[in-house]
Amino acid sequence: MINKSITKLSIVSLLAIGAQAQEAKLTVTTATNSDKSVRFNFDKADPGTNTLVLNFKQLTNSSGSQTQSFTINGYGGSFLTLNPVNKDQYIGMSYSYRYFRGKFNPKYDVNFIYLLPYQNEIQVKAS
Question: Is the pTM value of this prediction over 0.70?
């Protein structure tokens, strides 16, 4: 009976350790300027290139696409500024974002020989 309790406690402890939330590697913040425009900023832990997709669920007193994509570099900076249509009112919005490492649809050089992790004389088909 005690062995079963210890086993169950060990399993629950291991699951709790493995269930820790991952910290976001890229965060987006907004800042409202004195002219009632809104500036979107990003901060990230590594200097590589990321593609950020911004999806507006609701956007009032400004115009723009519901979904916008940005290629961002460096550790942080500004990537978008929304200006109000009516200068007397603030911009209302609700948004979400997602990101992934690298560029979306990157260009490749047809003259460059890309090395793949295969042995010589192995035929590989790429599509």
Answer: no
